[in-house]
Amino acid sequence: MMNNAMDTWLEPEELEVLTAEYRLSLNPLAADSAFCIPFADLLNQEKCQHYLRRVGDIFETTSETATVSLFAKRYAYLVVASGLYAMSLFNKGLNVTLENGWIESSYQGEVWLPKARLLNTRISMPQAGLRKEWRDQIIQQMFAGNLSRVWNALSKTAKISKSVLWENTAIYVYWLYEKKYVEGASFEQRKQFEEDYHYLLHDAPAHLFGESRNPLQQFNSPKTTTSESDTPIRVRKTCCYYYLVSDEPNDYCSTCPKRGH
User: Which of 36, 155, 208, 210 has the highest count of CB atoms within 10 angstroms of its CB?
Assistant: First the structure.
């Protein structure tokens, strides 16, 4: 149990939301384990490269750079989506440490959407008056203790910039708090989402992310209209390399800096 926190469990209705909407899993895959791997094995270069070769087949690309970037999008989502939602809405902290998780996945020719399976399902709640301290510990465990370590390993394995991997992470955090989480939320729930989101973007110190700068703040560009979008969008600072796996030439994402906007 972490400092400033009490041990508890998820309620059935809370667990149902996290498993149905945010790709949390508590059960191992019964069969077809080709795309299942412990989180911690991503730090092992040999095991990680073997896994990424299989993932590259899903994306139908031989580009290691594109494979790692597209994989990182999915890994970032399955780590942060359920964890931040539980933190902000339920006031509960999932144990998303590297040692406590598996990527659970099968693939039958559709969109590849892996899930995160947690081994230890006990969770934490802040003690009275200590939510800010508890929140820091949840953020640090999720980002510095998991994503930063995996991004460091992947950037060395595939010679890809960590900036790409962190921006892949950031765009999901922006979307989750700005769009997904607030769907159907009450006024009080929205207030908590907004408070935590503001903290993540503007006040959370860099060490909670295991970096010299807060990456969520670093990539939080002002939204702007473009020649292709009347709705203001946040143009990326890095390219995610999706165009390398597209069937269309120069098929850049709508927010890609390569478009020129």
Answer: 208
